[in-house]
Amino acid sequence: MRLLSFICAACFIVEEVHAWGFKNGVLHNSIWLEQAAGVYHRESRKGRYQLTYKEAKAVCKYEGGRLATYKELEAARQIGFHVCSAGWFDKGRVGYPIVKAGPNCGFGKVGVIDYGYRLNKSERWDVYCYNPTVKECGGVLTDQQKIISSPGYPDEYEDEQICYWHIRVRYGQKVRVHFLDFDVEDDTDCLADYLEIYDSYDDLFGLAGRFCGDNLPEDFISTGNVITLKFLSDSSVTAPGFQLEYTALNSTLLSQDTKILLP
Ligand SMILES: [Ca+2]
Predict the structure, then answer these.
(1) What residue stretch is flagged as signal peptide (predicted)?
(2) For residue 215, how far is its CA from the centre of ligand 1 (angstroms)?
C-alpha cells in the first residue's frame, strides 16, 4: 500500500513537472518571462525599433549592464524568456527569443530568431541587455491592463533602486493609473524615495506628479497613449512600496461627448 501511494505521488509529480516542462521542444508554460538569467529587453523611449547599435549599447550601459551575447539570450530563452521584438545583442547581431511557436511571431519557429550580424549599424532595432545584478523592476509594457508593483512588493524595496516603466497603449487610447497601495519613505518634497508619473514616453517632459509617504495618490489619466513611471530609492530607509494598476482607455466615447458640448 505504501509502495502504491509512493507510485501515485510519483505520477502526480511527473504530471506536475510535465505541465511546466518541455513538450515537443516547447516550454509548456502560460507565463512568459520578461527577463531571465540576467537578460532583459529594452526599447527606445521614443518607441519600438528606434535604437542604432551605438544607442543600444548606451541603453544597457546606462543601467549598469552590457549587450547580451547570443549564448546568454539562448540560456534565458531556455528558461522561458520570450519576446516578440527584434533587438541588438552582442557584436552587432540582431534577433529575438521565441519559446512558443506562433503564427505572428518568429515565422512559426522556436529558438533565437537570428537576423545575423548587421553590416549597417545605423539600422534601428530594440536591444537585449545583460546584467546579472539588475533589480527586477521596470520595462516596456504594451498590455491593455497590468498591475505594477515596486520591486519585492509586498516586502520592502531595497536601497538605491531605479526603475523605469514605459507604458504604451494603442494610438488614440489613454492610460489610466489607479493606485492600489502606496507606502514610500516619507520626506518633504519627496527627495529621498519617490514614484514619478510622466505624461510622456521619457522622464524629460510632462512630469505629472511625484509621490512619497503613505497617502494613496489619486487616479491619473494621460493625455496621449504613452506614460512613464519612475521609481527611485536613495541609500537609506525603505518601505513596503506601491502597487498600482494601469488600464488603457478608449477615448472615442470621451471625444464624442466633447463634440456634443462644442457649439
Ligand atoms: Ca529611502
Answers:
(1) 1-19
(2) 17
Return the sign of the alpha-carbon dihedral for residues 114, 115, 118, 123.
negative
**Overall average pLDDT of the 203-209 stretch:** 86
Residues 158 and 150: their CA atoms lie apart, in Å, by 10
**Which domains, ranges and CATH numbers included, belong to the chain?**
26-130 (3.10.100.10), 139-255 (2.60.120.290)
Q: 83 or 219: which carries more pLDDT confidence?
A: 219
Residues facing 140 on adjacent strands: 166
> How remote is the CA of residue 226 from the centroid of ligand 1, in Å?
28
Average pLDDT over residues 66-90: 92
Supply φ then ψ for residue 50, to 5 degrees. -130, 0
Whether the CB-CB separation of 193 and 234 falls below 8 Å is answered with yes
Band (163; pLDDT cuts 50, 70, 90): confident
pLDDT at position 12: 38
Question: How many angstroms is it from 197 CA to the middle of ligand 1?
Answer: 18
Cα–chain-centroid distance for residue 111? 21
The residues placing their C-beta within 5 Å of ligand 1, an ion, are 185, 192-193, 233-234, 237
Q: Which residues lie below 8 Å from residue 86, measured CB to CB, with a gap of 6+? A: 49, 94, 95, 96, 113, 115, 125, 126
| Residue with more model confidence, 6 or 61 | 61
Q: Which helix (H) or strand (E) holds 64?
A: none
Residue with the bigger pLDDT between 168 and 247: it is 247
CA distances from 236 to 152, 154, 159, 249 (A): 16, 18, 6, 38
Ligand 1 centre distance from Cα of residue 137 (Å): 16
Instruction: Count how many Cα atoms sit within 13 Å of the Cα of residue 39 in the half-sphere of its side chain.
Output: 28
